[in-house]
Amino acid sequence: MIELVTRLWEILSPVHSQILSLIFTLVGAMIFWLFRARVKLIWGRSNNSIHFIQADDKKTEIYCEKYFLQNAGRKPANDVQFVMSFKPDDFSVFPARNYEQLVNPEGQFVTRFPFIAPRELVVIDVVYIQKRAAVIESVICSEVIGKNVAFITNRKFGMTFNIMVSLLLFFGAAFILQTVLNLVLGS
Asked: Which of 27, 57, 103, 174 has the smallest count of CB within 10 Å of its CB?
């Protein structure tokens, strides 16, 4: 295989510069395509809780869930639809924004957001009384279909810790780069 490539390269020797130009152009176009501004819609469930309230010799079950909806891309997501299998007893959105709710012909509860800005996070809190949570049927916008990801509640570390981790990552990457260059170029 190497002999075939070498022979082909020798045959094409009059046009080496044009071939290299084409390769650089294609690689550049691929890099621009990979890093283009686009919508990246992700969603997930962070936590839930169940509470039982005793009133008048009757136990009432209250089930709460929190959903996160985020445009992790660099382009606004337009006409975002958050579709649940049925309507919860209470529904709230943070930060406060304009949205509309409707029930589609299949009986699914649809919440429509006109847009979600790049890097914006929308938190949806829902409450169910005497029933369990609805299933999220889909999260979709006019550009993409939302991807379900695992969200976790995480501790926020201080500035000193963040700087230390950043320095360690930088020095580790520099070490790997130096090792690779030594292997490729020789000592």
From this structure: 57
Strand-pair category, 109-116 with 100-103: antiparallel
- Residue 46 sits in the same domain as residue 24: no
Residue 173, by phi and psi: left (phi above 0), alpha (psi -120 to 50) or beta? alpha
Q: What is the C-alpha to C-alpha distance for residues 69 and 92, in angstroms, rounded to an integer?
A: 13
**Is the domain of 24 the same as that of 62?**
no
pTM (2 d.p.): 0.69
Whether residue 137 lies inside any domain: the answer is yes
Range of the domain at 25: 1-36
Q: What average pLDDT does this structure show over 100-107?
A: 92
What confidence tier does 187 reach under pLDDT thresholds 50, 70, 90?
Answer: low
Helix or strand holding residue 87 (H, E): none
122-149 tens-digit pLDDT: 999 999 998 888 899 999 999 999 999 9
Q: Identify whether residues 25 and 51 lie together within a single domain.
A: no
Residue 140's nearest CA partner among 61, 52, 75, 78 is 78
Q: Which two tokens stand for residue 68?
A: 């996160």
Sign of CA dihedral 34, 41, 81, 140: positive
- Inter-residue contact 52 to 59 (CB < 8 Å): yes
